[in-house]
TrEMBL record, chain A:
<dbReference type="GO" id="GO:0005886">
    <property type="term" value="C:plasma membrane"/>
</dbReference>
<feature type="transmembrane region" description="Helical">
    <location>
        <begin position="6"/>
        <end position="25"/>
    </location>
</feature>
<dbReference type="InterPro" id="IPR007227">
    <property type="entry name" value="Cell_shape_determining_MreD"/>
</dbReference>
<protein>
    <submittedName>
        <fullName>Rod shape-determining protein MreD</fullName>
    </submittedName>
</protein>
<dbReference type="Pfam" id="PF04093">
    <property type="entry name" value="MreD"/>
</dbReference>
<keyword id="KW-0812">Transmembrane</keyword>
<feature type="transmembrane region" description="Helical">
    <location>
        <begin position="37"/>
        <end position="55"/>
    </location>
</feature>
<keyword id="KW-1133">Transmembrane helix</keyword>
<keyword id="KW-0472">Membrane</keyword>
Automatic annotation (TrEMBL), chain B:
<feature type="coiled-coil region">
    <location>
        <begin position="66"/>
        <end position="106"/>
    </location>
</feature>
<dbReference type="Pfam" id="PF04085">
    <property type="entry name" value="MreC"/>
</dbReference>
<dbReference type="InterPro" id="IPR042177">
    <property type="entry name" value="Cell/Rod_1"/>
</dbReference>
<dbReference type="GO" id="GO:0005886">
    <property type="term" value="C:plasma membrane"/>
</dbReference>
<comment type="function">
    <text>Involved in formation and maintenance of cell shape.</text>
</comment>
<keyword id="KW-0133">Cell shape</keyword>
<protein>
    <recommendedName>
        <fullName>Cell shape-determining protein MreC</fullName>
    </recommendedName>
</protein>
<comment type="similarity">
    <text>Belongs to the MreC family.</text>
</comment>
<dbReference type="InterPro" id="IPR055342">
    <property type="entry name" value="MreC_beta-barrel_core"/>
</dbReference>
Amino acid sequence: MNIRKFVVMPLIAIAVFILEGVSSLMFSQSFFGEQRFFIPHFLIVMLVLMATFYGRNPTLIYAFILGMVFDIYYTGILGIYFAIFPLVVYLTDKFMKVLQNSLILVGLVVVFNVILTECLVYSFYLLIGGTDMLFSTFVDQRLWTTILLNLAFFLVVFFPFRSFLLELKRSDGR
Amino acid sequence: MPQFFLNKRLIILLVSIIVLVALVGYSLSGKSKASWPEQFVKDVAGFGENIVSKPVGFIAGFFDGAQDLKNTYTENEHLKERLEELAQLESKVADLSKENAELKKSLDIEADLSDYDPINATVISRNPDNWNTQVQIDKGSVDGVKPNMAVRTPEGMIGKVTKTGAKSSTVKLLSSTDDRNRISAIVQGKSVAYGIINGYDAEQRLLEMKQLPVDQKFTKGEKVVTSGLGGIFPSDIFIGTIEKVETDKMGLSQTAFLKPGADLYDLNHVIVLKRTLEGDTSEGSGS
């Protein structure tokens, strides 16, 4: 029985999932209350790191399950994050075939994925009439602040999470 | 051509797109009853979130309390002054409510639109992507919460219950820009006017109250409450105060912009209102 694989990793995923909801409740005044929005996409950061240092296929399973639960529990519209999370993992895997996994390059991939996610979700809500925000307003009030927040989270978790994932991979025998 | 159908990746892509569109269509159909897989996920996730959210909320509350200690003295002075007025008001309210009850009894009225049973609940999490703003509360169908019930804080109305699990439910806030979010409301000005609250101006953070009569004058600061005429919400729940009024595009009605009474970005304890008087229980989304 591999404790890291079957206990610690799912627990980390659950913790990050809960962290997103609880932190956006606790800091809702500072995240959404001012003119600018800081959207936590901590799960995206986690999935990018997992796809980079652990492997594509197990990460895809995490992405599917987390995406489904995220849709049912938080957004209430099934299918958005259910599609985006696996897409993020797939793209990250493709990127990492040609890029080095250093802090700066993985950070750039995180930024790319956060921008991709935000734009896809924005265009989705625009399509179904859930918002009437202009694209310029969206970039000014939401996008770049969201990038900053998630980049900060990425910098905090990068080194500890990388060493954990590398050990997980070693104990997995791959 | 057979080559085309043998392309595994393409087929997977097409099938997944069809599945996604079906899922999105299903969830936009506006059903208020959650299917059992949804219920299951909601209950499990709600349970986990409850365990984490309660202690975190407690610690955050402790620090807020420590912050409050600093201006206790001035607040106390101010409150003492108000206390004298309060005693007078209290006796008056007691008088009036007694009189009201007697009059109702003599007229054989049992319950009216403004009566409700409160269910106290705690907010456990908030939707992280701020598009359709909704929060999760820790009371569900076991505690008697049902879809379409109104939710308020002591300061005013914040939204309505959309989906319920066993021990958690989803509350859609007034600030979500959803066309199906409609509330019948009254302006309590010099003369009463009816309108419908529908829409939210995200940039100015004001609620939009539409279909007000064009020939009436509204002033800033007039109060808006629910009317209870939609058949689902109780009446007389405070929603907000008028900030400004504009004539709409066609010139046939006016739109008022309301400042919500409750702070939609600082939610902790909320009250779910169960209307005593049974209304239209059919699955309507307008309220």
